[in-house]
Amino acid sequence: MAEFSVYTKTGSLRMTFHASDNSNHTIAIKEDSVLSLSMIMQQCVRLQPGDYVDFLGSRFWTLEAYTPKQVSTVEWTYDVKFYGVESIIKQALMLSSEGVPLEAYHAPAREQLAMVVMNLNRWMGNITDWKVGAVVNTENLDIDYSGGAYCNEALNKIAEAAGVEWWMEGMTINISKAEHTACGDDVIGIELGYGNGLTNIERDNADNVPFFTRLFPIGSTRNIEYGHYGNARLQLPSGAKYVERNANKYGVVERYEEEAFADIFPRRTGYVSSVRTENAHNDDGTAFTIFYFKDQSLNFNPNSYEIGGL
Q1: What is the pTM (predicted TM-score) of this model?
Q2: HEC states along the chain?
């Protein structure tokens, strides 16, 4: 039975326990690395999003709050999953330094990666553990992040533009040719085959319903004039950058959404309260009628809200 120590996102010890024999570490190609730990304890310790354990030189985090199941007056059972770096980089959206979804960025690969690292540290509670590693030298790259790019998608875009791979060593991200060297007897191979190497490989299927706890709504540009409004898009009434619900329970799961808010923009539906007419003539003497409509409920001057050029 292996001993594990769980730490809070700030590095404080939360609990220490011995995992049962049915605990496992799941690794899959192009899938998340998951550490599933089970144990029975005589105390109830609630885990919070961002709590982590270290295992075989790698770090694994909880992505949502977890409460053990009480099975008697003195015992609680734990079946909790900790997720590797592959899961973490899928959670954080690419935001600008102003805290709004990044649309595009013009900078060399190193600065592009620095923006990814900034967002990973932001998402994890303004820590400084994520680092920029080796980065190939490039000219300025024009990377399109519109539509709500997550950090893993951003890394793919940067690596493709730079013509190399991206890879990680712990919480250090590199954008360069992936090379690992080892010498002599220090090389440890993994033999694949029945009864050898990986003990558990499985693939989980998620449904197609997006789940999130932090929403970045991208407002419409219709009927918006920057000079008067102070922004090119419609903003939340409070000026907040995002709306958050149940993050303390399920962790921070970010989502970008523009399409759902496309039809929300400043407008007014008026109702005709009276009509009067006036007869008139063109310069050639042709008669025509002018109709004057009135909306008695209109309580502002429309001329004060004209958009320039329209």
Answers
A1: 0.65
A2: CCEEEEECCCCCEEEEEECCCCCEEECCCCCCCEEEEEEEECCCCCECCCCEEEECCEEEECCCCECCEECCCCCEEEEEEEECHHHHCCCCECECCCCCECCEEEECHHHHHHHHHHHHHHHCCCCCCCEEEEECCCCCEEEECCCCCEHHHHHHHHHHHHCCEEEEECCEEEEECCCCCCCHHHCCCCCCECCECCCCCCCCCCCCCCCCCEEEECCCCCCCCHHHHCCCCCCCCCCCCCEECCHHHHCCCEEEECHHHCCCCCCCCCCCCEEEEEEEECCCCCEEEEEEEECCCCCCCHHHHCCCCC
